[in-house]
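User:
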Amino acid sequence: MTPSPSTPTSDEVLLEVSGLSVRYAGVPAVNQLDLTIRRGEVVGLIGPNGAGKSSTLLAIMGSVPTAAGTVTLEGKRVTGRRPEDIVKQGISLVPEGRMVFPQLSVKDNLRLGLVGRRSKAGAQESWEYVHDLFPILREFEDRSAGLLSGGQQQQLSIGRSLLADPTVLMLDEPSLGLAPSVVDTVFDALEAVKANGTAILLVEQRAQLTVAFADRTYVLRDGEVTHQLTPESASDDKLFTEAYFGS
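Assistant: Predicted structure:
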């Protein structure tokens, strides 16, 4: 990712999910889900446990099979492709639980992100960008990733995904288990990533924080979108509660 001037949200649909359905052993996890993400936009995805949020990200990423529906990126269908191919198309996922390689150094964990780049051009600029975004990664570059704190591992996981130079960055519960000060660090970094022109799809347990942060937020219940909220909804307790928990 080469740093660029702040990119405003445009009307161009970058990622489109249409009629997406996921089933596990015949049990619906996601049912006919539609969502869109425009260039330079942050889109939130919230809902109770078991609502289908993680399954949606995994289906977009090609990590679980879809029962129905299509996923297109910049007008090109990616449904049914292997995860490694989808990364090279321009979608990266920061998984729940961070999933760093504990025996490898911070530097070597980051290098794995370079494997998924569509082009090696700009790799050095991306490397510097990630280290400027998360200075702790430069400070501890020779340390084993397993010795990092949870917040440091989360920064490593995000940095690794950014080194693939994604058009769309997806994150699954990036604040899970983090201290409030580290949550602020992560969201400040995501604000900078958005300003750099990368679209973001954010699954988060901190629902009100997500609604306030994102340009739009979809609410999922039982695998279906029930509401679409704007940042103003975060301060409307009645609307927010009804959307999230049902009336």
